[in-house]
Amino acid sequence: VVTVRNGIRANEVTIDTGREERRLRLEPGAEARVAMAMPAGVPYKPYETPVSYVYAVTFRTTAGFVPFLETPPSSDNRFLGAMVTIVPELR
């Protein structure tokens, strides 16, 4: 499950898992939550730990902002589009 919280500009966020692609049109400050289908992961087993799986997910945005230019007195000079949180659902 992917949760996307948009920044201060209207935005289109694209999520691509390789098995499914979603485009979310978000107003400033809006939040969306979507369940995404995932392809089989790549097994990863470092040392003596249980096997984990690695997945590739791509996120694209059409808009963003630099906080120190938009919301003084911020000193944050990163270009931000949307905040993404991924919570796996095990099946």
Order of helices and strands: EEEEEEEHE
Provide the residue-averaged pLDDT. 95
Write down the Rg: 16 Å
- Residue runs with pLDDT of under 50 for 5 or more positions: none
For the sheet with most strands, the description reads:
3 strands, antiparallel
How would you describe the overall organization of this protein?
The chain is mainly β. The chain contains one helix and eight strands; from the N terminus they run E-E-E-E-E-E-E-H-E. A three-stranded antiparallel sheet has the order 4-1-8, with no helix packed on it. It has a three-stranded antiparallel sheet with strand order 3-2-7, with no helix packed on it. Strand 2 and strand 3 (21-26) form a beta hairpin. It is globular, with a radius of gyration of 16 Å. The chain starts with a strand and ends in a 5-residue tail after the last strand. The model has no long low-confidence stretch (mean pLDDT 95).
Furnish the topology, listing elements before pairings:
Blueprint: E1 2-6, E2 11-16, E3 21-26, E4 31-34, E5 42-44, E6 52-54, E7 58-61, H1 67-70, E8 82-86
Antiparallel strand pairs: 1-4, 1-8, 2-3, 2-7, 5-6
Question: What labels would you give this structure?
Answer:
single chain; 91 residues; three-stranded antiparallel sheet; 8 strands
